[in-house]
Amino acid sequence: MKRKCFFVVLVTFVFCFLISCGTGGSNNATIQVKNGAYDWTAQELIDALNAEIEETGDSRFLRIPDFNASDEKIVIDDSSFEGLTLTLSVNSDGYITKIVIDWTTFKESLERVNTCGLIIGRLVGSIAPDEYDAIYDQLDMDASGTSEYTTSASANGTDFNYKYQLNGMYQTLTITPALD
Hints:
The chain is an alpha+beta fold and 180 residues long. 33% of the residues lie in helices and 27% in strands. The chain has helices spanning 2-19, 42-56, 110-127, 132-139; strands spanning 33-34, 37-38, 73-77, 84-90, 96-104, 149-155, 158-165, 170-177. The strands form two sheets. It has a six-stranded antiparallel beta sheet, with helices on one face. It has a two-stranded antiparallel sheet with strand order 1-2. Strand 6 and strand 7 form a beta hairpin. Helix 1 (2-19) packs parallel to helix 3 (110-127).
């Protein structure tokens, strides 16, 4: 149990650190909703995240594999039952309509924690840079000790939905354009 709490606290720390580096202002959001989708393709998002990982020069981050097909899980770390996956749904024009990040805490790794924090932090910071503190507070991603809960937040035309299951062994963050 102490390891799970440590993992949750570490993910929270990395998440907070990375989103605090976000650019200021919703007008400066680098990922925006247009016509019910984000204005980035799946591969553009993966390339941007991988470029940031490479910029760190730190081997404690995991590279994200290329996008193959809509709704196909991209396994980033499979050291323990698909430890970290990214699923991207796209519309017929190839633009992202849904982002799902799943991670487990069966066998924590620093690489998984760092990469998960980078993905979540950059997505929130790129979609809603002015609201990232409020989003983090509303999602309450560090409420360890609870067996299961779901939370949500909305900002800058986006819904963020977080699900915490089996005392944190399974966690999911789903990011979608808000329905009008």
